[in-house]
Amino acid sequence: MRPFLCSLILFVSSFLYGQTSFFAVADAEKVRPGNLVEVSFILKNGEGEDFISPDFSNDFYILSGPNRGISTVIQNGQMQREMSFSYTLQPKKNGKLTIRPARIKVRGKTLKSNSLVILVTSDGKQENNNDQDFFIRAELTQNTIYLGQQVRLDYKIYTRKEIQNYSILQESDYGGFYAADIQRMDNMVQTTNIKGKTYYTKVLRSVALFPQQTGKQSISPLVLQVGLLEEDPQRPSSLFFNGDVKYVNVESNVLNVTVKDLPKPVPTNFNGGIGNFSASSVIDKTSASTNETFYLTITILGDGDAKRIKSPNLNLPPSFQLYDTKSEEEERGENEGKKFSQKSFTYVIQPQKEGEFSFQPSFTYFYPLTGKYETKLLDPFLIKITASQSNSISLKEETGQFVSLTSEDFKSPSIFTNILWIAGFTIPFLSITFFYVYIYLSQRKKVKSPSEVTTDHLQQAKIFGDQGDYENSFIELSFALRTFLFHQFDIPKENFSNEQIIDKLEQSGLSNQALTQQLRQLLNRFEMVLYAPSMKKDQWKLTWEEVCLWIKQFDKA
Q1: Contact (Cβ atoms closer than 8 angstroms) between residue 23 and residue 104
Q2: What are phi and psi of 304, to 5 degrees?
Q3: How far apart are CA 104 and CA 493, in angstroms?
Q4: Per-residue CA distances from 474 to 88, 224, 306, 537 (Å)
Q5: What's the CA gap between 103 and 109, in Å, rounded?
Q6: pLDDT at 432
């Protein structure tokens, strides 16, 4: 009787749920280079376990996944149950890329999916189009520029839906460009009309690009994960029900830029600057003797790449000897969507001949707006040089009187005098030495270790959060995590992006992918709360706990 009941149950189950199958699908068979493809492995009518995905590492970047989903649908009296494992992938290269089968166990039996072939080609599926309810667009102020010329890149989102939040999954690859973030960008929400539809637009990010090589250059897409507020028409929005948040991956378009070389012939006095510049100079003295040096400083300020700027032309008289030149670079802020930097040159000059001399420094640069080389003449200098005075063999006291030296001054001192002289010299020296060693050791004891600094930031973040100061709480949390990372991986604190931190972590040989993914999410969250202030109040405590847990787990790993 019992075998009959078991057979009956299996028969009814197979009738209700249908036949078990396991297969792979992709949302596109052809995609453009740099675009995304969604791949899903679907199990129908079965309880699966021990899912094993194929190895994507040779041909694809994994931007998201595996994202697991379960659904049950009754259609024509038959129940269909699906279990899915989805990935968001970005191709690493062009051509035919094969995704091998995945495996899963169902009732002790291993099922294998089909393989997939994705063709990556320039005429593949274009993900972004203006018929969508939202998309992100990369926009350059110019598509044809000169080598070294600054150009601004804006990542702008267009939407007809309410966006709850977003995070950066993958940065663009700027390839042949030097890139620097623009902080003071225009991020006001505006409206625009495209094909009869009204979109809300906002600049999410602005980057200053400086091309480092000529020819056709490409900028790969920026990939975002966007949280869209989806309202349920069956459940009207209210104080308690505001709809569900649906997370969707979206990428910007691929940009192609033509970088031209500078016009030929290049002037022999060209100083390397490409852009719009101003120049100023200052000298420490306008009169000197032939045994004196004077200092001349020339400062160049502009929107070009400061690293390319070479020393301006001084046009010195032949009798002036140039001994040394020191240069310094620094950023000077932003104006009208461009970054400005300053480069200063300080010269040490010594005249070799007396007389009156004049010279006028100049700075020659290339101005992209006119397509011409231009020269700025700085203020001229008139220098009066007098003959140096010979050195007297007599010694001069502070009173101005000369001191005569006699034979008594050259007598050898006695042994007792030597001892007194040595003691008088060494005792103060040793006292000063002991004093500075004591001060150094005292200050050294006061310097906190990186772990103590990290703990202080975490404690301060907790205090700010409990007091309702969520802005400073997130700032302290960010400081805590970055202080810990900078110490662990010897990372320079300035100009280090989230992606560079992740790369450093992966290069360290850490095999725990979960820790890497958690760190990526934390770093993205710190960036995201800048544009979603409401998140600070809701997530500060969760973020504080996750940062503490991550540091603890990393120490164990």
Answers
A1: no
A2: -90, 175
A3: 45
A4: 30, 22, 34, 10
A5: 10
A6: 63
Question: Which structure tokens are listed for 198?
Answer: 């009204």
Classify domain 134-260 by CATH number.
2.60.40
Which residues are registered as beta bridge partners of 325? 347
Residue 543, H or E segment = helix 534-556
pTM value is: 0.50
In CATH terms, 273-386 corresponds, of 1.25.40.10, 3.40.630.30, 2.60.40.740, 3.40.50.1820, to 2.60.40.740
Nearest alpha-carbon partner for 248 in 140, 121, 157 = 157
- Is residue 319 within 8 A of residue 353, CB to CB? The reply is yes
Rounded to the nearest 10 degrees, the angle between the axes of helix 513-528 and helix 498-507 is 170
Q: Which tokens hold the place of 452? A: 């103590």
Cis peptide before 492 (omega within 30 of 0): no
Strands 273-274 and 294-302: unpaired
How would DSSP label each residue in 181-199? E-SS-----EEEEETTEEE
Closest CA to 292 of 330, 321, 317: 321
List beta partners, residue 110. 105
Residue 505 C-alpha from the chain's centroid: 15
Whole-angstrom distance, CA of residue 42 vs CA of residue 80: 12
One-character DSSP codes across 512-523: -HHHHHHHHHHH
> Quick one: DSSP state of residue 407?
G
Residue 3 has phi, psi (to 5 degrees) of: -60, -35
**CB count in 10 Å sphere of residue 372:** 9
Q: Is residue 45 left, alpha or beta, with left meaning phi > 0 and alpha meaning psi from -120 to 50?
A: left
The DSSP secondary-structure symbol of 410 reads G
Note the pLDDT tens digit of each residue in 205-240.
899 999 988 888 888 888 888 887 766 555 554 444
Domain boundaries, the chain: 16-120, 134-260, 273-386, 450-556
- Secondary-structure class of domain 16-120 per CATH: mainly beta
Q: What pLDDT score was predicted for residue 433?
A: 62
Mark the ranges of the chain whose per-residue pLDDT is less than 50: 1-17, 127-131, 237-241, 391-412, 443-447, 493-495, 531
CA atoms within 13 A on the CB side of 466: 6
